[in-house]
Amino acid sequence: MEQRHHAHQPRNDYGRFIATVLLCCLLAAAGYALQHTISCMLLSWIIAYLLDPLLVRVEQRGLPRNYALGLLYVILLFAGFFFLAFILPAITISWNGFIHDLPAYIQKLKQVALDWKGHIPDRYGSEEIQWLIDKVTATIDTATEKAALGAYTFGTRIIFNLFNIVLSPILVFFMLFYKLTIIDAFKSWLPDGRRIQVIAIAQEVNSSIGGYLRGQVVVSIIVAVLASVALLILGTPHPFFCGIFAGAASVLPFIGVILATLPALFFSWFQYQSVSMLGQAALTFAVIYFVEGYLVKPLVFKESMNLNPLLTIIMVMALGETLGFWGILLALPIASAIKITWGHVVQGDFDQR
User: Fold this and answer.
1) d(Cα 293, Cα 313) in Å, to the nearest integer?
2) What is the separation of C-alpha 121 from the centre of its chain, rounded to a whole number of angstroms?
3) pLDDT in tens, 310-342
4) pLDDT tens by residue, 192-237
5) What angle do CA 231, 236, 238 make, to 5 degrees?
6) How far apart are CA 58 and CA 63, in angstroms?
7) Are 281 and 268 in contact (CB under 8 A)?
8) In terms of pTM, does the model score above 0.85?
9) 197-202 CB contacts, 8 Å cutoff, 24+ apart
């Protein structure tokens, strides 16, 4: 009888594995179907996650959490007014200018292709090259329509997401207000034999994710401000658009630095047609990312996640495809949480004692 019991044990583990996979698939399908709701929840959770340390520090000074939360929202109200009065109009003007100039930039690209075609010598292989340029030129008009449509679609999505921005402060308030209640309820659901271990792992994951999110927000803001100011001084068209794009691209590991420079290089080249201006824009971003990599990040990120580069790329691609921007932003924290949890599993912290 004892041998039969051991023989059936792997089947139970296999069934649990299948159930876990099916549950993950179900959650992924539900997440895709409710992507707007989940997007709003993730935005609110990240904001609450970033603001909670401020409330904790105020509470440590003796002010009750209710009053600290009210004081925080008064400060955020003034910050929101400043954003709506000064920052948002500048971003809107920059975006409208980009939409207005986009067809002209693409037509310039078409003219450059035609110029290259005219300078091709009549030699062996030139017919194939001309055919390639003809194909590229023929598709530029279609690309113009798609680019304009994509830009307007992106702007429409931003306007649609304003609903999330309006709803998020309400969700953030309740998340922060009921934080301790939620934590106590989560602890009560844990089995008695695993409670201490799970809480310890959760605290470790919380420290890693919290440090990364807060650090990444600071780094993105610094990169966006430095890039916007530098490009404004250089006279590059749409400096705020390029700066915001650079700040958002800094979230991406490895390739974010390359992607961040592309809009600035594009606008500099087609505005001035000068290699000197192109070099100045490239040098500007080289200096910015030198400062980011060797000065800002060592100060902001006190602890590194030490993630495998291959795992990082896979997580960013997979979650970015399923959850969009939020998947890209949360890919590294999720990978870090999986790494920390798996490390405790390998160490045998969940073994029955």
Assistant:
1) 19
2) 46
3) 777 787 887 777 767 777 777 888 888 888 888
4) 777 888 888 888 888 878 878 888 888 899 999 999 999 999 988 8
5) 90
6) 6
7) yes
8) no
9) 197/344, 197/349, 197/350, 201/340, 201/341, 201/344, 201/349
